[in-house]
Amino acid sequence: MLQGCLTALRQQVWPTFAGGPVFQVAIRTAKRKHLRIAARKKRTTENKAKEEVKEKVWVPYKLRLLQNAKPKAREENDPLLKSTPLDDVWLARYYHRRVCTVREALSFHRELLHPTVLDAPESPVKLNLELNMRLEKDSKFLSEVKGLVLLPFAEERTSFRSVVAICKNLEDQQKAVDAGADVAGHLNVITAIEKGELKMDNVDYVVCHVDSLADTLKLRGLLKKNMPDRKKGTLGGDVAAMVKLFASGVEYSSTKEPGVTLYGNMKFTVGRLDMTDEQFEANITALVHSLAGHRPLEFGPIINKAFMLVDNSQEEYRIDLSSFNPKAGPKDGVVRRGKGKGAPAAKVVTPAEDLQPKAEQESEDGKQATAN
């Protein structure tokens, strides 16, 4: 019926010819509404894209190749294909590289940099380390190894860090000041931070004793990143040791090649060539123990390779640091279950301890029997 009314309306209003009506009425119904909305959205997005088009920065062809290039896989089978040299003279590329001890590498560098040869007997000695970044799972790696280490025989400091110590005991406050803290106290320091008298912009680290943590929690919004935390090493029981580490410690940080997650590289200065072998060994021990804290000891040593090099010389000797690694010993009375870091710990029960609850239960049963 509706179609007939529309046909009559066309014949009355608009003239017709042999080929059909001159005009046609377009009825906009909701049948194709979603198509119109989609087309409108597409036009708006295209218009916005045209407006946001920016000029492309020209990149040289060789630089573009380097950016798009994938890192080459490490040749893990290379040491297996080489053998140990049997003679005194050999071609280095066909045999294993010689691994020296720390004292042997130092003697080689001292001989080369002697005043009668290269004349640089006080050159800085550096370690070039390759770090193992793998964790408990194959898909998890350390993103970065960064921290502070307190060297027993460090050079004179060129940069100073500001440290604030919060502790209740007066003796701890005096020890913190002697260790290098700028300000040490308890309620007076907390009040000064709240009132703005002690500005955190000029403070690098805030260390806190465990007993003062409850009073320090209200400063969380003011301290922000400087809030004491056990993971950062700014919360503990020995305030003087924490202050000494953050005030006089030497910074170290690792770097990674683009796209490489299995290992990282790090260079660290362990002393000068005029130091004794014992001083070098003490500094290397402190560094290796500090690096080992970034990775569980049960996964093996964190250092894959170590090389010793000296400024003013191109010689580089591979050294063995296995004797400096901390040993992972089982904790007293605790056995680990599972492979994860958060695995529960079970206490080891000795036979004497196993019999003790039974004896206590028998004594309690005897007391109840006599009472009845």
Summarize the topology.
Elements lengths: L1 H12 L2 E2 L2 E2 L11 H20 L8 H8 L9 H4 L17 E2 L1 H11 L11 E9 L13 E4 L13 E4 L3 H10 L3 E3 L1 H9 L9 E5 L3 H4 L3 H4 L11 E2 L2 H10 L1 E4 L9 E10 L4 H16 L10 E8 L5 E4 L14 E3 L8 E3 L3 H21 L1
Parallel strand pairs: 3-13, 6-7, 6-8, 8-9
Antiparallel strand pairs: 1-2, 4-11, 4-12, 5-10, 12-13, 14-15
Structural descriptors:
Ribulose 1,5 Bisphosphate Carboxylase/Oxygenase, alpha/beta, 372 residues, 15 strands
Characterization of the model:
The chain is of the alpha/beta class. Among the domains are: 101-154 and 250-324, Ribosomal protein L1/L10, rRNA-binding domain (Ribulose 1,5 Bisphosphate Carboxylase/Oxygenase, 2-Layer Sandwich); 163-248, Rossmann fold (3-Layer(aba) Sandwich). The chain contains 12 helices and 15 strands. It has helices spanning 2-13, 33-52, 61-68, 78-81, 102-112, 170-179, 187-195, 213-216, 220-223, 239-248, 277-292, 351-371, and strands at residues 16-17, 20-21, 99-100, 124-132, 146-149, 163-166, 183-185, 205-209, 235-236, 250-253, 263-272, 303-310, 316-319, 334-336, 345-347. It has a 5-stranded mixed beta sheet with strand order 3-13-12-4-11. The chain has a 4-stranded parallel beta sheet with strand order 7-6-8-9, with helices on both faces. Strands 1-2 form a two-stranded antiparallel ribbon. β14 (334-336) and β15 (345-347) form a beta hairpin. It is flat, with a radius of gyration of 37 Å. The protein starts with a helix and ends with a helix. 18% of the residues are buried. Mean pLDDT is 78; it is low at 330-360. Residues 355-372 have a biased composition (Basic and acidic residues). Keywords: Ribonucleoprotein, Ribosomal protein. This is 39S ribosomal protein L1, mitochondrial. InterPro entries: Ribosomal_uL1-like, Ribosomal_uL1/biogenesis, Ribosomal_uL1_3-a/b-sand. Belongs to the universal ribosomal protein uL1 family.
